Every structure is written in C-alpha cells, then in structure tokens.
TrEMBL record:
Gene3D superfamilies: 3.10.450.50. It comes from the Bacteria. SUPFAM superfamilies: NTF2-like (SSF54427). This is DUF1348 family protein. InterPro entries: DUF1348, NTF2-like_dom_sf. Pfam families: DUF1348 (PF07080).
Length: 155
C-alpha cells in the first residue's frame, strides 16, 4: 500500500494541500487512480449510496463520470483536526440532454497514518443552471492555479 502525503496530524497548510490533491485527482477523472488515495477497506457514504473498498469506489466513479459530463470540481477546507478534514466543494457538469448543474456539498474525511482516506461522508445537492451561469471554465483536468477558488467566486 502506497503512502499518500501529506500525513496526519494536519496543519492548515497540509490540510489545504490534501484538499487540492483530492481536487486534482477527481478532476483527472481516472477512477483507478483516484481509488488509490483510499484505504483498501475505505467506507463511503455519497448522498444515499454506501460504498465499501476500492473496487466499489472504482465502479462508483466510473458510473458517476459516465453520467456527469464535462465535470469540473473545486474543493476548499472548512475545518480540520489531527486526522480529519471537513471540506466543502462545488462542481459543474451537464447531463446527456445538455442540462447543466452545479452540485454543492460537504465532505468529512478521515485518514490513516499513511495519509490514505479511510472514511468519506458526502452530502450533495444539485442545482440546475443555465450554461451561461457556469463559473468553472478551464480545459478538462486540473484547475489552473490562477483560477479562482470557491470563496473567491462567492460560492
């Protein structure tokens, strides 16, 4: 099992680094790669779905990104303790009919000593938006450093 720095206990700086690394991985939309940041027995609650272990994480993310097209995500730390981070996020995506959404949510993360996430609890709400209301405009992949974050965008 590979270690994933930064490691607990977190500081404000390392919690922000961990959130940005998670954002970057999810924006890469590679389920196999994303799953490696979680313990083999990781437990998730995502909305009303419960996911257990890396194989289920891969299956979940594969389904998610097949449905949520042109996905772009921004994460921001809300609070942290030694081995836990609370993050808020927003992502924009469209469905196969062309309807755009901005999904808002909060996640609670718990990490092991190797920096792997062992628990992820996510609450998410979807807001239909007009394409002209989109705020996340960058090429698919990692959000550029100069692109505003959630607080800068008033989200």
């Amino acid at each position: 099992m590979s270690a994933r720095p930064p490691f607990p206990p977190f500081t404000a700086e390392t919690a922000a680094q961990k959130a940005r690394l998670a954002e970057d991985a999810w924006n890469g939309r590679d389920p196999q790669k994303v799953a490696l940041a979680y313990t083999p027995d990781s437990v998730w609650r995502n909305r009303a779905e419960f996911v257990h272990g890396r194989d289920e994480i891969v299956a979940f993310l594969t389904r998610k990104w097949a449905r949520e097209l042109d996905y772009r995500l921004i994460k921001e730390v809300w609070a942290f303790t030694d081995d836990r981070i609370a993050a808020r996020f927003a992502y924009e995506w469209r469905d196969d009919s062309g309807q755009w959404f901005r999904s808002y949510g909060n996640e609670n993360w718990e990490f092991d000593a190797q920096g792997l996430m062992r628990r992820r609890l996510a609450s998410i709400n979807d807001l239909p938006i007009a394409e002209s209301d989109r705020r996340f405009h960058w090429p698919q992949g990692r959000r550029p450093d100069e692109h505003p974050g959630l607080s800068d965008l008033g989200l």
